[in-house]
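Changelog note: in this version the structure field was regenerated for every chain. One regenerated record is shown below for reference.
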Amino acid sequence: MKYLSFIFIFVFAFTSCSEDFTPKPKAYPKIVFPEKAYKEFVVEDCPFVFEMPKYGEIVSNKTFFGELPDSPCWVDIVFKDFAGTIHLSYKEVDEDKNAIGVLMDDAHKMTFKHTIKAEYIEEKRIQGRKDNVQGLFYDVGGDAASALQFYLTDYEDHFVRGALYFETAPNVDSLRPVIDFFRTDLLHMFDTFEWEESLN
């Protein structure tokens, strides 16, 4: 019995002196961002130009889910270091299938499909340096698949829709610094955007 008491006291003495375990807070790896620098976006099939980040690469999409898109100007700007892509699609405005009201409504519907995961969707008007470059910028909060979406138009002939996606599960806590970084690039794009007839 004395032996059992001794073991009990010995075990109790060592376990009672341990420090309480405090888990470390959840953290994400530090992201090193490149210096902001821009180059001209020029694609033969696209009737517009703008300044895009130098750390992005233009990839033209000839098919969309195995089919030809409405316009050959169906382009991605890929950011390999961030596993991110800005998808751009262009449509020529006409009074039949691509009426401006229909295109704007489609862009709105596509953005608001994210309301299931979105905490909020904030709309901001876009006015480029040129009077004929206008549109809407959607800032989608929460764990939505695409946090930044937009459309640009001249309301007569041209319509461009864009969305930023990442090749990862949406997590606003880890993606917030990257989303903020690319928001600045999109604002620069809107400011420098020009339709081709404005270039002459």
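Spot check on this record: The first helix runs from residue 2 to 16. The first strand starts at residue 38 and ends at 41.
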